[in-house]
Structures are given as structure tokens and as C-alpha cells.
Automatic annotation (TrEMBL):
Residues 34-449 form the Glycosyl hydrolase family 13 catalytic domain. It comes from Myceligenerans indicum. PANTHER family: ALPHA-AMYLASE FAMILY MEMBER (PTHR10357), NEUTRAL AND BASIC AMINO ACID TRANSPORT PROTEIN RBAT (PTHR10357:SF179). It holds the Pfam family Alpha-amylase. This is Glycoside hydrolase family 13 protein.
């Protein structure tokens, strides 16, 4: 044994922190793949992805072996925030196709055994929504204005915003209307927008707003969807009186307060939101099958998050605490334990996620330094650039660890190809409102939203029938195109496919979890047992020797051999038969 190797320890014993949880509902252990429609596949050659494009590539997801697909918004929208600004909740935006295209996509997905989850954006609408247009045309104090958060300003002539809240995309969270003849003494009113000024917040104390969204749920349930991802699920109810708050709001709350923002202000996580989800739970119950709601709620501590998935509320909540955890064995063990224990206490499955359309992809994040805490929302050409090789190696190890964990896991399109962010996008192609509202201080999220590479030798890397792509693809995407990875041993696609197949066969999603005793406090090894599989992740520099005779099921990278036996190199995860 070389001195730098870590000797084998028995992989037996240890504390079980999560009991096996055989559940009948599909969402308890599903692997759900996020499709970002504008960047998945383009059916008509306009450079923007669309529903026919998605349908044409669903075979890729069936081959990969996921259970469900979640689609980010494809509804009618001026696309000021890439579709999270909806003008008609019951219509497909012409850029993405038609309702018939949606039905065809849904039918094909179901044929392939894939469930379909759609995005619901209830905290705000687009300013082009007929309700907001009616509110602008109506007088202060009218019923039309009551559907949104209009207020008189403070100070002389109401010239100061109603409070000091800041938009999550930067700048003030209030915009003042143009003057009208029937304005009161406080002059033109202001409206609240936690995000862009084109995304006015709805007033969830208004009964019509509540009824409308229950109807929207039914509209899509009638069209056969299996669930909803609920945008800003922690934001719909604001603290009474809208008190000032001096904190800094953040969509992505980095671990250890890394980006200096938090979600603890009076605009988030108010007790009143739970009544909404109890009502929605009942709506879903009217339908057969196991329909589900998943909360996008950036709240902490985790015990607050668990309140969203109590028995009569939503079914799942994204585990962002896991996403922001550093590449550190102790911290990973802590977040896994806390996640499972907290969700077990309310009978909900834990979820796991490493990437989505709002954060730097984990293949880039983990290539920045020793930690997972880089800039969460975007890397620009002026920033320190990630080490692509290190990032991919760690990303594969992190994913293989994640896919072993009990509960439900979320994948973001392209991570199965090992895609990094585009970290050198020029400013003139950027589209994220966060870039504009912060005057470039934040580059924004465009770098993780690049059109996917399907075929290395085609124009636009096979994104669509033309060479147009709404954001440019980096040269590094060519070698990572899907057709370069199918059937190729050791490719990231085959790693994901292999892991998903084993996860299903070994029923890991429903398994119990035990921390392997010999590594329970190890500074740079995570070792756990789920069902009959032992998982080891080596985050340290020294290779970890595996016990003699260990049957390797899958590894995130090549293992090494020495006189002492097979060893697990740095930044690598392995699954072994227990
Ligand atoms: C969260 C979504 O994931 C993000 O993309 C969007 O900008 C905000 N909510 C506002 O809807």
C-alpha cells in the first residue's frame, strides 16, 4: 500500500437514520427530469425550443430511464422572465406551439411511461395579463386593483414607495403608475413586484384570485397532467401591513449565507400560504391517480420547509439546502440526515436536486474551488473561470451520490450530458432580467439555459432544423452532444442511465439509509448503505481502498488498482453490493 492510500475499513454496522419507506404513490421515489422548453429542442427552426421539439426528443428521456418530466412554463407570455411572466394560464405561447401540441406531447410522454408535471406561477402574473390591464384602467380602490398589490405611496404626494422592499432581481420592489384624473390625494398608486416590474404580485387575500387558480389547476388536470411545480410557493402571502425590512432578498440563498441574501423577510413563508395548499390538495384529490404538487420554496430552516408537505398540503418540496451544500463530507452527511429526519417527521418523501434553470450548473459550480459555494446565480467572463475537468469529475461523483439517496430526485436537462454553464456569454446576448435590473452586477442565469447539444456535426449542434439558437452554445458543447455519448462506456449519459437503472432495480428510492460506522465521522469520505447497496464518495486526496472482494456496481470515474486492492480515487463515488 502506498502511504497515501486510505486502508479499507469494514462496510458494516452504523446508525440507520431513515427506515425503508415502501409507498405506493409514484412521486415518493420518482426521478423527475426538468425540461426548460426554450432550450430543450427546437421543432420549427426559429432558434427557440418548443413543444413539438420536446415531443420529438422524449425518447431520450425514456432511454435515460427517468420517471417523469417537469416542464418550465410554456404559457402565453411576453417572455420578460422566460415565461415566468404569464398572460394566459390556459394557453400555450405561440413560440412554443399550441394546446394540441401540448396534448400530443403529454400523450407521447404517457405512452413512454413518463409522467408530466407542469409549472404553475401563482405569485405574480405578467403585466400584460388582462387582469393587470384592467387594474391599470380602473380607479384606485376598485375591484380590479384589488387583484394585485396596489398601495398609495408614502411622503409628500405619495412620492415614496409604500415600503423599502427590494426586488429579487435588483432595484425597488415597487413601481409607480402614471398619473390619472381620479387619483386620490396620494397621487398615482404603486404596485408590488417581488421580481421584475413586468411581474406584478397577485393579491392572495382576494377570493377571485384563489378561485381562478383552482380553476387553472383543474384545466391542466383535465388535460391529464400528473402534477404541478409551484413557483415561489413561499411568497404568495405577505405579512399584514407590509412592514419595512432591511434584509436583502435572494432567490438563491447560498449555504452559510454565501451570497448575503436570505428569505426571512415579511414577504416570505407566512403562515397564511398553507391554507392555499390545503385547498389545492383537495382539488387534486378530486382526480384519480396520484397527482402531486411540488413546492419551490426557498425557506429555512428545513423544519419550516416540512410544513409545506404536511399530509394535507403539497406532496414534495425542492431540497435547496442539499443543492447549496459545499463539497464537504461532513456537511453532506449533515444535510442528508437533516433532510430525511425532517421530512420523515411529516411523512413526506425527501427530494434531492443539484441543478436547475436558476443556478450555476453543478458541473461548473463544483469546478470553482474546494466548495460548492461559488456565485450561485451566474458566472461571467470577468469572473474566475471554473476548472471544467474538476467540475465534471465532482459533478459525476455528486450525482452518483444523489441518485443513491432514498426519496425523489430532480435532474435538470443537460446534466446527463455533463454540461457546464456558458461562463463567457457576451453581455449583448443576455436576457435574464436580473442582469438588467442589477446593471450587470449579477450576470444572471442565462449561462445555465443554453440550448442543448444533440448532434455534434449538425448546425446548432442539432438543437433544431436550422443553425439558430436563442443563446450561443459554447464550443465545449460539441464533444458533449448526446450522440457522442449514447452507448459510449464511461460517458456521462451512460453513467446516469446506469445509475437510474440500478436505482430502480435495487429500489433505492424506497430504501432505508444507514451511515456506515467505519466512516461515520470521516472528514473526507461519505459512506452509506441504502437497501442492499453501499455507496462511498471520496472527497479527499488519498485513494480509499475498498474491502477485498467488493462487487462494484457502478462508479462515477475509473477506479485504481494497487497491491492492497481496488481503490476509489479522489472526487469519485462508487456503488458496491452490500
Ligand atoms: C422562480 C423561477 O424558478 C425563476 O426562474 C423565476 O424567475 C422566479 N421564480 C419568478 O417567477
Amino acid at each position: 500500500m502506498t502511504r497515501t492510500e486510505r486502508p479499507a475499513v469494514p462496510l458494516t454496522g452504523g446508525d440507520q437514520i431513515h427506515a425503508p419507506a415502501p409507498g405506493t404513490e409514484w412521486w415518493r421515489d420518482a426521478v423527475i427530469y426538468q425540461v426548460y422548453p426554450r432550450s430543450f429542442a427546437d421543432g420549427n427552426g426559429d432558434g427557440m425550443g418548443d413543444l413539438p421539439g420536446i415531443t420529438s426528443r422524449l425518447d431520450h428521456l425514456a432511454k435515460l430511464g427517468v420517471d417523469a418530466v417537469w416542464l418550465s412554463p410554456f404559457y402565453r407570455s411576453p417572455q420578460k422572465d422566460a415565461g415566468y411572466d404569464v398572460t394566459d394560464y390556459r394557453q400555450v405561447d405561440p413560440r412554443f406551439g399550441t394546446l394540441d401540441d401540448f396534448d400530443a406531447m403529454r400523450a407521447r410522454a404517457h405512452e413512454l411511461g413518463l409522467r408530466v408535471i407542469v409549472d404553475l406561477v401563482p405569485n405574480h402574473s405578467s403585466d400584460q395579463h388582462v387582469w393587470f390591464q384592467e387594474a391599470l384602467a380602473a380607479a384606485p380602490g376598485s375591484l380590479a386593483r384589488d387583484r394585485y398589490m396596489f398601495r398609495d405611496g408614502k411622503g409628500a404626494d405619495g412620492a415614496e414607495p409604500p415600503n423599502n422592499w427590494q426586488s429579487i432581481f435588483g432595484g425597488p420592489a415597487w413601481t409607480r403608475l402614471a398619473p390619472r384624473e381620479d387619483d386620490g390625494p396620494a397621487g398615482p398608486q404603486w404596485y408590488l413586484h417581488l421580481f421584475d416590474s413586468s411581474q406584478p404580485d397577485l393579491n392572495w387575500d382576494n377570493a377571485e384570485v384563489r378561485a381562478e387558480f383552482e380553476d387553472v389547476l383543474r384545466f391542466w388536470l383535465d388535460r391529464g397532467v400528473d402534477g404541478f411545480r409551484v413557483d415561489v410557493a413561499h411568497g404568495m402571502i405577505k405579512e399584514t401591513g407590509l412592514p419595512d425590512w432591511d434584509g436583502k432578498v435572494a432567490m438563491v440563498e447560498g449555504s452559510d449565507g454565501a451570497n448575503g441574501g436570505s428569505n426571512e423577510g415579511p414577504m416570505f413563508d407566512q403562515d397564511g400560504v398553507h391554507e392555499i395548499y390545503r385547498a389545492w390538495h383537495k382539488v387534486l384529490d378530486e382526480y384519480d391517480g396520484d397527482r402531486c404538487l411540488v413546492a419551490e420554496a426557498w425557506v429555512s430552516p428545513m423544519s419550516r420547509l416540512a410544513r409545506y408537505v404536511r399530509e394535507d398540503e403539497m406532496q414534495q418540496a425542492f431540497n435547496f439546502a442539499f443543492l447549496v451544500t459545499k463539497w464537504n463530507a461532513g456537511k453532506l452527511r449533515d444535510v442528508v440526515t437533516e433532510s430525511l429526519e425532517t421530512m420523515d417527521a411529516v411523512g413526506a418523501p425527501t427530494t434531492w436536486v443539484l441543478s436547475n434553470h436558476d443556478v450555476v450548473r453543478h458541473a461548473s459550480r463544483l469546478g470553482l474551488d474546494e466548495t460548492a459555494d461559488g456565485p450561485m446565480n451566474g458566472i461571467g467572463p470577468a469572473d474566475v473561470q471554473p476548472d471544467a475537468e474538476l467540475g465534471l469529475r465532482r459533478a459525476r461523483a455528486a450525482t452518483l451520490l444523489m441518485l443513491s439517496l432514498p426519496g425523489s430526485a430532480y435532474l435538470y436537462q443537460g446534466e446527463e450530458l455533463g454540461l457546464p454553464d456558458h461562463t463567457t456569454l457576451p453581455d449583448d446576448v443576455r436576457q435574464d432580467p436580473a442582469f438588467f435590473r442589477t446593471h450587470g452586477a449579477e450576470v444572471g442565469r442565462d449561462g445555465c439555459r443554453i440550448p442543448l447539444p444533440w448532434e455534434a456535426d449538425r448546425p446548432g449542434l442539432g438543437f433544431g432544423p436550422s443553425d439558430a439558437t436563442w443563446l450561443p452554445q459554447p464550443e465545449s458543447y460539441r464533444a458533449l452532444a448526446a450522440d457522442q455519448q449514447y452507448g459510449v462506456d464511461g460517458s456521462t449519459f451512460e453513467l446516469y442511465r446506469g445509475a437510474l437503472g440500478l436505482r430502480r432495480a435495487e429500489r433505492l428510492g424506497q430504501g432505508g439509509l444507514t451511515w456506515v460506522a467505519g466512516y461515520a465521522d470521516a472528514a473526507d469520505v461519505v459512506a452509506l448503505r441504502v437497501a442492499d447497496v453501499i455507496v462511498l464518495s471520496n472527497l479527499g486526496a488519498a485513494p480509499v481502498v475498498l474491502p477485498e472482494g467488493a462487487e462494484v456496481l457502478i462508479a462515477s470515474g475509473p477506479l485504481t488498482e494497487s497491491a492492497e486492492g481496488i481503490a476509489l480515487p479522489t472526487d469519485t463515488t462508487v456503488w458496491i453490493r452490500g
